[in-house]
Amino acid sequence: MQQHIGRLIGTSSWVNVPQSRIDAFADCTEDRQWIHIDVDRAKRESPFGAPIAHGFLTLSLLPITSYELLCGLKPAKSVNYGLDKLRFMSPVIAGSRVRNHIKLLSVEPREDGWTLLRTENTIEIEDQPKPALVAVSLGLLSWN
């Protein structure tokens, strides 16, 4: 993996972000702000002209898009270790599609047998110039 540091690992498939997914996330998190779930009000009052996905909903798509691209590593175990940096750049309008561009930043073997994998994740919004978010994600992998 060391020879791939600094390189784009790949780009995930598109993921749909329909209003139903936004509503389900609102129910799960109890974050029911009108800008996310009140379609009529969002069309009238939101600067985006439609409901938008929660930033944390967009962030929660990192695992599904990451697994698709990192499945070839085939660790025996993997653990989400957190984030070093996260920036929400643009809102995801209900009905949009997003995908993840993953760049490998570092691979750090640890004394406890785990390997710390640091990746930069850029969630692109289809047909939009700015990404939804950029996050430096940390994962622990073990082949034991």
Jot down its keywords.
single chain; 144 residues; alpha+beta; Thiol Ester Dehydrase, Chain A; six-stranded antiparallel sheet; 5 helices; elongated
Tertiary shape: elongated
CATH class: Alpha Beta
CATH architecture: Roll
The main β sheet shows up as: 6 strands, antiparallel
Tell me the domain tally: 1
Give the CA-CA distance, first to last residue.
17 Å
Output the CATH homologous superfamily: Hotdog Thioesterase
Which topology does CATH recognise? Thiol Ester Dehydrase, Chain A
Rg, rounded, reads 17 Å
Total helical segments:
5
Number of strands: 6
Mean pLDDT: 94
Strand content: 35-45%
Helix content: 25-40%
Q: What structural class is derived from the secondary structure elements?
A: alpha+beta
The residue ranges in which pLDDT falls below 50 over 5 or more consecutive positions are: none
H/E series, N to C? EEHHHHHEEEE
Overall description:
- This protein is an alpha+beta fold and 144 residues long.
- The chain has a single domain, classed as Roll (Thiol Ester Dehydrase, Chain A).
- Helix content is 25%, strand content 38%.
- The protein contains five helices and six strands.
- It has helices at residues 19-29, 34-37, 39-45, 55-59, 62-70; strands at residues 8-11, 15-17, 77-88, 96-109, 115-125, 133-142.
- Strands 1, 2, 3, 4, 5 and 6 form a six-stranded antiparallel sheet that branches.
- Strand 5 (115-125) and strand 6 form a beta hairpin.
- The chain is elongated, with a radius of gyration of 17 Å.
- The two termini are 17 Å apart.
